[in-house]
From TrEMBL:
It holds the Pfam family GFO_IDH_MocA_C3. InterPro entries: Gfo/Idh/MocA-like_OxRdtase_N, Gfo/Idh/MocA_oxidrdct_glycsds, GFO_IDH_MocA-like_dom, NAD(P)-bd_dom_sf. Residues 139-276 form the GFO/IDH/MocA-like oxidoreductase domain. The lineage of its organism: Bacteria, Pseudomonadati, Verrucomicrobiota, Verrucomicrobiia, Verrucomicrobiales. One of its GO terms (molecular function) is oxidoreductase activity. This is Gfo/Idh/MocA family oxidoreductase. It comes from Luteolibacter luteus. Keywords: Oxidoreductase. Residues 4-126 form the Gfo/Idh/MocA-like oxidoreductase N-terminal domain.
Length: 381
């Protein structure tokens, strides 16, 4: 087992989640590499205190450049507000480190393209975080689509919903302000979740219409006052994609105000001969449709059938910490050249392709038209 030394820039919610995935690495049974968290950087000293519980994490600093100067670090994971993506990602590459970047890979399309250019020039191994496709149900959807048994594709829907923004008393944070989240708002926040699997299956749309919706115009600022919130909270993109020369509707949904939803990722693929749907609302359950004399859906409980094998019994139900760990296994094993045909993390090209979709969605909504989506970005390797 080869140790890979990891540094984290941004020790908040996702930084802690990644660190806990490393701590459970012994659960994986078919990997040849092991992440070891050696350093973390965060502007808030109180945030850094949480990492005292990890003995291997010997460097805790408020200056991320001190982290990047550590010659022992192999990979740096970055989870910071979107307006900081480009500067920090480029600094990571300049320091000669491999990068695991958070979505959306830059605050807007122009930024994402500059990051991609820097990645290509650097020669470093870079991927973008997107964990939901590592649920067993999502993996089965990809497998069934690739087997080609659904006939001509009629329509595809993929999305990510949560409901926490329904509460007008929820304090604002940087994701509710365009200057730090980006003009795309929820597109930047949740868009990669909706785009990753369709893009991996080759379904990049050529045109799109979008409906964007804002939520509460002001929220508490946590300091006894309120602050303006100007980002889009809900977005539905109606697009056209192609499969084997046949066009079909592709709908992408990203919502921070979806009553009843708690981080629900879902996908549905319908064809002339069959279909499949999966939602993390039922994390071990897959629904498959087969055309016949009678029209019916079959329900199957998949259990713990993750891409990378673990000590967890097959009868158990997967959850968010499990797919975070699976995503990291995919990143590190692909970095080592040992992915072995398993599903890989989102590539820089796919991240830029998602931004191209978001840019078209913003134009379509603003002008009330169907907007063309750029096609110059190459597909994933």
């Amino acid at each position: 087992m080869k140790d890979i030394h990891i540094g984290i820039i941004g020790g908040g919610l996702m930084g802690r989640e990644m660190a806990s995935a490393f701590a459970r690495w012994c659960a994986l049974t078919d990997v040849t590499v092991r992440p070891v968290l050696k350093a973390v950087a965060d502007l808030n000293p109180a945030t850094l205190e949480w990492f005292d519980r990890i003995p291997a994490c010997t460097l805790k600093t408020t200056d991320y450049k001190e982290l990047l100067a550590d010659p022992e670090l192999d990979v740096v994971y970055v989870a910071v507000p979107h307006d900081l993506h480009e500067k920090i990602y480029l600094d990571v590459l300049e320091a000669g480190k491999d990068l695991f970047a958070e979505k959306p890979f830059g605050i807007d399309l122009a930024s994402a393209r500059r990051i991609l250019d820097a990645v290509r020039k650097s020669g470093r191994f870079v991927r973008c975080s997107s964990e939901m496709p590592f649920f067993p149900g999502a993996q089965r959807v990809v497998e069934l689509v690739r087997e080609g048994g659904f006939g001509r594709i009629l329509e595809v829907t993929c999305g990510f919903h949560h409901s926490s923004d329904l509460d007008p008393n929820k304090p604002a944070n940087w994701k509710r302000i365009s200057a730090t989240c980006g003009e795309g708002g929820v597109l930047n926040d949740l868009g990669m979740h909706a785009c990753h699997v369709p893009l991996r299956l080759g379904w990049k749309p050529g045109s799109a219409f979008a409906q964007l919706q804002k939520g509460w115009p002001r929220r508490p600022d946590g300091k006894s006052g309120t602050v303006a919130c100007d980002t889009w909270d809900n977005a539905v993109i109606h697009a056209w994609a192609e499969e084997k020369g046949d066009a079909f509707p592709l709908r992408l949904e990203m919502k921070r105000m979806a009553p009843g939803a708690t981080n629900t990722w879902f996908i549905e693929v319908l064809g002339t001969d069959g279909g499949v749907r999966f939602s993390t609302a039922e994390p071990k359950t897959l629904h498959v449709f087969e055309r016949g004399k009678e029209q019916w859906w079959k329900r199957t409980d998949l259990g713990f059938a993750t891409p990378f094998k673990t000590v967890t019994g097959g009868i158990f139900e997967p959850g968010f910490p499990d797919v975070i760990q699976q995503m990291w296994a995919a990143y590190l094993m692909e970095r080592a050249g040992e992915l072995g045909g398993r599903f890989g993390c989102a590539t820089p090209e796919e991240a830029v392709a998602s931004h191209e979709i978001f840019a078209a969605a913003l134009e379509a909504h603003q002008r009330g038209v169907v907007a063309s989506i750029p096609t110059q970005t190459a597909g994933h390797p």
